[in-house]
Amino acid sequence: MLLRDRAVGLLQHVDRVRQEVRDDFNEPSGEVTVAMPPSMLELVTMPSIARYRERHPGVLLRVIEGISGVLNAWSMVQLGKADLAVVTNVEPLATLESTVFLQEPLCLIGPRSARLDPAAPVALDDVATKLLIVPGRPNSLRLILETAMAERKFPLDIAFEGNSPTLIMLAVEAGLGFATLPFCSAYRFLRDGRVSLAPIRHLDVSWAFVQSREQPLSTAGKQLKATLRETIASQIASGDWALAKLLP
């Protein structure tokens, strides 16, 4: 069993090297697996899949979505179950390479009747007065909020916990409480006029690419990473993701 556990990583590395040599002379092929946050499903994941499949039909693309807690995405890359992951920026592991590439504000999201305005940021004091629907632990978005509230000695008034962004947004739309999530989580609901939203002043979320230090991305993986950045840049330029900032 010990030999097997050690050999799996070595064999995966050999497969990647073989694939890289082939890719230098041909179109990218083989397999690539990416772990994506459910909050980016409509703004990033779906458009990126369409772009990538059109350009690289010879690659088997695997998308893992709906991860509960950022640490699971990190561990999937660490264990070799994913080649690339997009996560909120947390303390990196020594065996993994983390590159922050995107920043956006954490937002207070309420029902349509709350009339929150994306152009009018709210203070953390305002958040403290709301009944909140929050992701369950472990979740880095909740950690960002809890840390900021604790520093100001504000209590968290929690209505209930939910690990699905869609569930949380439906609950907000129904008037069961307010949420504190990134803009990308509320994109479709805000576009359709089902909720209202305002950025929380001085409370940002940083998104990072995570990959292995020991096993570099294959050509297919590098192309996928570039496609994700391209999609995000396009969404920001079009105004659909107006509150986000793509970092160099």
What is shown here, in short?
The chain is α/β, with parallel strands linked by helices and 248 residues long. It has eight helices and nine strands. Strands 1, 2, 3, 4, 5, 6, 7, 8 and 9 form a nine-stranded mixed sheet that branches.
Attribute tags:
single chain, 248 residues, alpha/beta, D-Maltodextrin-Binding Protein, domain 2, 2 domains, nine-stranded mixed sheet, 8 helices, 27% strand, globular
Overview of this structure, please?
The protein is α/β, with parallel strands linked by helices. The protein has eight helices and nine strands. Strands 1, 2, 3, 4, 5, 6, 7, 8 and 9 form a nine-stranded mixed β-sheet that branches. Strand 5 (132-134), helix 5 and strand 6 form a beta-alpha-beta unit. Helix 2 crosses helix 8 (219-237).
